[in-house]
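FAQ

Q: What does a record look like?
A: Structure on top, sequence underneath. For example:
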């Protein structure tokens, strides 16, 4: 198929360059669009650090290495849990070395609340729990406000990384920014927000030292973001705006109103001591800016989900009980483990996602693979991503009502079926020797500890062997009437084996019983109208609702076979439509809420559609490139598809969040 082969070439060429502006004579050129293989680098800002600045940026690793890791306890002496490598050198007796990966839960640090005799014998919490002292957001109600994990930065680290002064211009080098990507709608089209996180050792507004300002604190995480609209073809981006955030204000500045360095890098100016970024310098900053140090953040950009400490829910910096207005939020995921979610605050809403690859986010990893950067998943074993339609629906529902906080627990696993994954254990999409427990058991355990406001479910496609059917039809012409063995889909099965049509008929009958078995296993604590199940997409509907003729090629153009239009139509009529009928019947029978219209929404956006901006389905070359030579993303929703699914689920979630189950 020509579109697939062309895409592979574009992607492979794109990985070798940073930014390539389209020429005026390019027939596919779009005004203002930038072509780049790595937008996080292309649009990273140039930051002018204030001339009077005393606390310069620091890497998260250097901050951790220079910190004492402690547990704060009201009415007791804080307990030293570990110490960073540099901090340990200043102690008379060394503590266990603080490990970044354990901050991020691999495995997590754990500490118990002290009893009246200051002995740690109460309920225990981990570094994945929201335990930052004095921070109420997402905090377990059972944890005292001034208890929790925090990193106490040693004083010699306060200056951060000093700029390198060469001649008249000072330049900051060797300090990373951390980028977080979020899919977002822009004028009804798919966009992406690039959030750049920057860490400073201390926040000292106006340069005032501790004691002079109630807002002086350690660990000042600042962030700015760039909103992009995706172009008609992959790798092309239209910058829309820059978002600047302070403690009291969020301001969006149109792209045309921002000064640029080298065409694509927003030029920003930091305020003295507070490090708040501005697009236009104030009078004091403008006068001193000739002596400002410049931070070219694109020189060292790191993917936030790839950081070993990502997910840490404790405090960055020392928490002084006598100082109010403690610290800004730090980067961490908005989702949680079931254990961390079990003791959420009273006004928190809990959304849990279970099921198969459509629910897990297959085809849309948290960080796509590229040279020097492996693919990153929230959980690689399950190809679980926070860019899934379920996760984005939860985020959109939460953003619609700022008064409501949401905890999102993703448990779905790519490749799961009802018996293997949903109601039984499952080894996962990428086996690593660890088996995932039955998802329904994890849900039931969570329901014993708190109410679940919405349970998002997607299951059934793997029970019908959808991926194996596609493989079989690629390899065997006129596949519907041929003998089919799901264990060996690359060829026609031996004599005496059922035909493909017969296998599908039997599996549909089993699926009805599978839905009933799951419903019986699901805890009675979960109201059945809190279960939300969505219909499946049909990836084979092309432009004008026509059938796709799919000739599948790999990323070097190798021919892997074809699915004719007649076979695509047969698959829709005998697999996708009966599967969705089974979903609707199960929802009606068991009292679940049904999200309809998915199949109709995808009509005209199937795998054979051009241009890329109209296609909502991941191709094989894309899967191989973006998922690190892994094919499993093929025929799954791409970023546009997951966002489209989220839009359909969001209204149902918003209704459920307005009427909490407790």
């Amino acid at each position: 198929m020509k579109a697939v082969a062309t895409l592979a070439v574009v992607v492979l060429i794109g990985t070798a360059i940073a930014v390539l502006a389209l020429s005026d004579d390019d027939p596919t050129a779009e005004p203002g669009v930038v072509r780049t293989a790595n937008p996080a680098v292309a649009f990273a800002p140039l930051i002018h650090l204030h001339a009077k600045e005393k606390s310069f940026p620091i890497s998260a690793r250097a901050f951790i290495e220079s910190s004492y890791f402690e547990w704060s306890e009201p009415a007791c002496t804080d307990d030293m849990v570990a110490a960073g490598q540099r901090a340990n050198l200043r102690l008379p007796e060394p503590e266990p070395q603080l490990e970044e990966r354990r901050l991020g839960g691999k495995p997590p640090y754990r500490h118990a609340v002290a009893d009246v005799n200051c002995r740690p014998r109460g309920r225990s919490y981990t570094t994945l729990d929201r335990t930052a002292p004095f921070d109420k957001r997402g905090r377990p109600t059972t944890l005292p406000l001034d208890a929790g994990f925090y990193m106490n930065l040693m004083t010699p680290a306060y200056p951060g990384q000093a700029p390198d002064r060469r001649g008249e211009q000072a330049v900051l080098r060797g300090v990373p920014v951390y980028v977080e990507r979020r899919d977002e709608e822009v004028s009804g089209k798919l966009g992406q927000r690039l959030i750049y996180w920057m860490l400073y050792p201390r926040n000292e507004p106006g340069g005032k030292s501790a004691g002079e300002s109630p807002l002086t604190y350690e660990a000042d995480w600042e962030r700015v973001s760039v909103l992009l609209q995706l172009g008609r073809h992959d790798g092309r981006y239209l910058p829309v705006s820059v978002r600047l955030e302070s403690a009291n204000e969020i301001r969006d500045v149109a792209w045309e109103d921002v000064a640029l360095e080298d065409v694509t890098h927003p030029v920003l100016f930091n305020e003295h001591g507070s490090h708040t970024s501005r697009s236009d310098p104030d009078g004091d900053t403008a006068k001193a800016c000739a002596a400002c140090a410049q931070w070219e953040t694109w020189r060292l950009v790191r993917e936030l989900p790839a950081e070993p400490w990502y997910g840490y829910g404790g405090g960055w910096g020392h928490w002084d009980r006598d100082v109010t207005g403690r610290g800004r939020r730090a980067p961490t995921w908005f989702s949680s483990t079931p254990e961390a979610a079990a003791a959420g605050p009273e006004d928190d809403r809990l959304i849990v996602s279970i099921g198969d690859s459509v629910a897990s986010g297959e085809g849309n990893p948290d960080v796509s693979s590229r040279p020097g950067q492996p693919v990153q998943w929230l959980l690689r074993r399950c190809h679980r991503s926070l860019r899934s339609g379920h996760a984005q629906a939860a985020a959109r529902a939460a953003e619609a009502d700022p008064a409501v906080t949401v905890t999102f627990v993703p448990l779905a696993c790519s490749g799961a079926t009802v018996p293997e994954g949903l109601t039984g254990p499952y080894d996962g999409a990428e086996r690593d020797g660890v088996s995932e427990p039955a998802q329904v058991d994890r849900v039931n355990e969570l329901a014993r500890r708190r109410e679940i406001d919405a349970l998002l479910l997607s299951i059934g496609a793997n029970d019908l062997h959808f991926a194996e059917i596609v493989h079989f039809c690629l390899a065997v012409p006129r596949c519907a009437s041929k003998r089919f063995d799901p264990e060996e889909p690359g060829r026609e099965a031996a004599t005496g084996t059922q035909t493909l049509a017969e296998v599908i008929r039997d599996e549909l009958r089993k699926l009805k019983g599978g839905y009933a078995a799951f419903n019986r296993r699901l805890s009675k604590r979960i109201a059945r109208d809190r279960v939300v199940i969505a219909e499946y997409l049909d990836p084979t509907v092309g432009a004008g609702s026509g059938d796709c003729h799919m000739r599948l090629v790999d990323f070097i153009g190798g021919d892997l076979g074809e699915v004719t239009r007649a076979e695509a139509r047969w698959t829709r009529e005998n697999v996708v439509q009966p599967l969705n009928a089974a979903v609707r019947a199960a929802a009606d029978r068991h009292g679940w809420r049904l999200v309809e219209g998915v199949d109709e929404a995808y009509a005209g956006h199937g795998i054979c559609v051009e241009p890329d901006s109209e296609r909502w389905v991941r191709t094989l070359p894309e899967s191989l490139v973006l998922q690190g030579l892994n094919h499993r993303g093929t025929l799954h929703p791409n970023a546009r598809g997951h966002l489209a699914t989220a839009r359909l689920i969001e209204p149902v979630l918003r209704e459920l969040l307005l009427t909490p189950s407790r």
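Q: Is there anything notable about this one?
A: The mean pLDDT is 86.
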